């Protein structure tokens, strides 16, 4: 990140599962601004060796905020997977978490986005600026076009557009961020199971309605929910996504231009090319 674009003193990366938190931390450090990494116990699974880091349970929001303040953080970035806990069964809450619990319980009835807004509001009320992973990893949100070396066919483009439209529709209901379409047939939509589990489900379907390694067909599309807070939980595509799409016999992956994150872009594109999958970014205006 250019020095002129840097708008915080120190970034705290609140790390859930997957490689995205590590990519965010590395991007911040590469710009000459070593971050502080706060790992969420039971979820963060990347190797943060070499970073200033601490681990806290999901039930200790106040403690997390205290660690971040002590580390000199004035901005935070939530990155990675943290599955929604059973709020009614949580124990061992610190004082801040206990005070927020009634708001969490009310918000949970409205969906994930409402729940996340309560969480973000708590950090903002403590003086933290909440920034998106895309604000830190500016090169990770692709512009419209073909991203790898594999070009989609006209049938693939039609599937991609339909899948993007479905992703927007279910996203408006705060259901999920992804869908799989094969020659116009909807094979799957994403809900709480996540993209990897959805792709595994597609791989278990009969081959006559999907592709295979010798004759790839179908497209996974990922797009942000129209209702969602974009500073958190943007759709993510990485090497694991490529592997899941390849195992499901798909021809490729489509994301909304400017509305998804490519984790380790070069490795992801190499994996897509090696698997024979296209990876495209679709402009919403061009649908």
Automatic annotation (TrEMBL):
Chain segments annotated as transmembrane: none
Annotated ranges, domain LpxI C-terminal: 144-280
The protein, known as: LpxI family protein
Annotated organism of origin: Hyphobacterium vulgare
Domain (LpxI N-terminal) ranges: 10-138
Phylogenetic lineage: Bacteria, Pseudomonadati, Pseudomonadota, Alphaproteobacteria, Maricaulales
PANTHER family registered for this protein in UniProt: BLL4848 PROTEIN, LPXI FAMILY PROTEIN
């Amino acid at each position: 990140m250019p020095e002129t674009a840097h708008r915080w003193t120190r970034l705290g990366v609140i790390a859930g599962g997957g490689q995205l938190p590590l990519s965010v931390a590395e991007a911040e450090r590469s710009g000459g601004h070593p971050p502080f990494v706060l790992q969420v116990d039971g979820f963060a699974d990347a190797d943060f060796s070499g970073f200033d880091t601490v681990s806290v349970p999901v039930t200790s929001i106040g403690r997390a905020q205290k660690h971040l303040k002590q580390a000199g953080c004035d901005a935070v970035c939530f990155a990675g997977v943290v599955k929604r806990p059973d709020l009614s069964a949580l124990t061992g809450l610190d004082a801040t978490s206990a005070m927020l619990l009634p708001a969490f319980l009310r918000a949970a009835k409205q969906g994930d986005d409402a729940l996340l807004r309560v969480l973000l509001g708590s950090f903002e009320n403590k003086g933290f600026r909440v920034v998106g992973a895309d604000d830190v990893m500016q090169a990770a949100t692709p512009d419209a076009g073909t991203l790898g070396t594999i070009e989609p066919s006209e049938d693939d483009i039609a599937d991609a557009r339909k899948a993007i439209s479905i992703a927007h529709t279910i996203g408006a209901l705060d259901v999920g961020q992804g869908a799989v379409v094969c020659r116009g047939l909807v094979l799957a939509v994403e809900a709480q199971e996540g993209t990897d589990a959805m792709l595994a489900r597609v791989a278990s379907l009969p081959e006559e309605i999907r592709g295979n390694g010798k004759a790839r067909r179908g497209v996974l599309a990922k797009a942000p929910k129209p209702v969602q807070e974009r500073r958190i939980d943007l759709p993510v595509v990485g090497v694991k996504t490529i592997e899941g799409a390849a195992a499901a016999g798909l021809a490729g992956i489509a994301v909304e231009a400017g509305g998804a994150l490519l984790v380790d872009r070069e490795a992801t594109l190499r994996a897509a090319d090696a698997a024979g999958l296209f990876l495209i970014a679709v402009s919403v205006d061009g649908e």
